[in-house]
UniProtKB/TrEMBL annotation:
<dbReference type="Pfam" id="PF09619">
    <property type="entry name" value="YscW"/>
</dbReference>
<feature type="signal peptide">
    <location>
        <begin position="1"/>
        <end position="23"/>
    </location>
</feature>
<feature type="domain" description="DUF306">
    <location>
        <begin position="163"/>
        <end position="269"/>
    </location>
</feature>
<dbReference type="InterPro" id="IPR053196">
    <property type="entry name" value="Lipoprotein_YbaY-like"/>
</dbReference>
<dbReference type="InterPro" id="IPR005184">
    <property type="entry name" value="DUF306_Meta_HslJ"/>
</dbReference>
<keyword id="KW-0449">Lipoprotein</keyword>
<keyword id="KW-0732">Signal</keyword>
<dbReference type="InterPro" id="IPR039366">
    <property type="entry name" value="Pilotin"/>
</dbReference>
<protein>
    <submittedName>
        <fullName>Putative lipoprotein</fullName>
    </submittedName>
</protein>
<dbReference type="InterPro" id="IPR038670">
    <property type="entry name" value="HslJ-like_sf"/>
</dbReference>
<dbReference type="Pfam" id="PF03724">
    <property type="entry name" value="META"/>
</dbReference>
Amino acid sequence: MLKSKLAVVLLFLPLGVALPSLAQSDSPGQSSANPSPSATHVLKGSVRYHQRVALPDDAAVHVILQEISADGTAKSLAEQDIPTKGHQMPIKFAVKYDSAAIDPSHRYEVVAKITSGGRLMFTSTSTYPVLTQGAPADNLAIDLEQVSAQYGQLPSGQAAHTPLIDTQWNLAEVDGKAPQNDSPQAYIKLVGKTDRVEGSGGCNRLMGSYSVEGRELHFKEMGSTMMACMGDVATMERAFLAALNITESYRIRGSTLSLLGKGAKVLARLEAQDTAAASQQ
């Protein structure tokens, strides 16, 4: 009966007149369209430092996700403040950001610091790219550097870092392993005038070239002499050369140089040769 009445109504309606919907919304005032999925993503990681310094109870970790413009200007996209409340290193973070604001062609970095009583205690000094251009999007490990023992500026006359160029860097560890105490010293030196690399693998003489742009560091055409090497010396030398060949960036903390590979993985650590000792060689 309902169908026949509806048919009669349709027959007498003028062309072009639309009927109101016969279906009623289950929830008046709400759209029946599905809401767009959330664009909120989370960048997770941790911050740490290597000094044996306990954080005071009021210390706070500040983590900032930044967009880096073509001229190097940093713009904050998301931040997280983490009261430590007596917890010590490492401190985990989870920065929420809008994924719709991320442009795959742009560069993004994370910086972090620790403050106490309004004073800066520790800060990141290396570049930590994230999210785009092959950079990690999770499980980021950020190393912090102590500003000074008294949470102030570096003491006057004290250099913040040893220069990368024209410093003899002695190998301290590669792939997490330190050379044996009686092993000949492996080292590299990046010569500023020639853009060449000089050094030793502990057995053979090393040579090659390098390029530096910002925090990026690449070793090129690395080679060595062909002396026969045995045991741990040979193993460390091969590992050292392999690390040099896949180095993509670096960081310097005081007198320690870290060679970094893909995803800022530490490949090797080297210590600056003491100036007085170097002059005696």
